[in-house]
Design brief:
Layout (H helix, E strand, L loop, with lengths): L3 H7 L1 H6 L3 E7 L2 E7 L2 E5 L3 E3 L2 H13 L4 E3 L11 H11 L5 H8 L5 H24 L2 H14 L5 H12 L8 E7 L4 E6 L4 E5 L5 H12 L1
Antiparallel strand pairs: 1-2, 1-5, 3-4, 6-7, 7-8
């Protein structure tokens, strides 16, 4: 089983150079990755296009994982050291830079009928899940969360950090926060921002709620 760290390391040069676009996807618990180069200037209106062979490979990737992403080291995020792995994971979990959208924008076949199989591959996975979420009341969601917490006797501090980061991005002070990573060995939380800068919060001996308070106080 290939880890995300392995895949990022394999395409480290492509990510750093910022010329190629690198796709990442999941197949079960394993990660896959592949680099693609666009055909420059194919479209008069807005530029580059996907080569035919690459388009076929992208369709296979999307059919394997409709939530696959594609990133570019120059456009998408700062690829510096360990932050690359966590940043790509955040992009995937936050459903940014999705490959299906990239395919639709850069595919040489612009006919909606011919592109429909790919678009459908994403919609079949995404739309039912969205409909379910819209139908659930806030009370039901809270009840499910409470049930989960009752089943889990210890606090998952990384899970708390992952849930806290999107909320903090809604604020004026932390709109550029990329992600929060909890290190259980040092009992610290590292906040990484979109410009690559980091801040570290000491959360030793904190409960979950105390950790949230300390993170906010130390990274703002």
């Amino acid at each position: 089983m290939a880890s995300l760290r392995t895949m990022v390391g394999r395409f480290r040069d492509e990510l750093r150079e910022g010329v190629a676009y690198v796709a990442f996807w999941k197949n079960g618990r394993s990660w896959g990755a592949e680099a693609f180069w666009l055909d420059p200037g194919y479209f008069e209106d807005y530029g580059d296009a996907i080569e035919d062979d690459d388009a076929r490979e992208m369709r296979q990737i999307i059919n394997t994982d409709p939530n696959a992403i594609i990133v570019n080291g120059f456009e998408s995020c700062p690829f510096v050291g360990e932050s690359a792995v966590e940043h790509i994971r955040w992009i995937y979990e936050d459903h940014r830079c999705q490959l299906v959208d990239f395919y639709k924008d850069h595919c040489k076949v612009k006919d909606e009928f011919e592109a429909q199989p790919i678009i459908t591959a994403k919609r079949k996975d995404a739309e039912p899940e969205l409909e379910v979420k819209e139908q659930e009341s806030s009370q039901l969601m809270e009840a499910k969360e409470l049930e989960h917490l009752q089943e889990t006797p210890t606090e998952d501090k990384q899970r708390i950090c992952s849930a806290l980061a999107p909320v903090l991005r809604l604020t004026r002070n932390l709109y550029d926060l990329a992600y929060l990573h909890y290190d259980p060995e040092t009992e610290t939380v590292k906040a990484t921002f979109l410009n690559g800068h980091t801040k570290t919060a000491n959360v030793a001996l904190d409960s979950g709620t105390a950790m949230i308070r300390d993170i906010i106080q130390q990274i703002v």
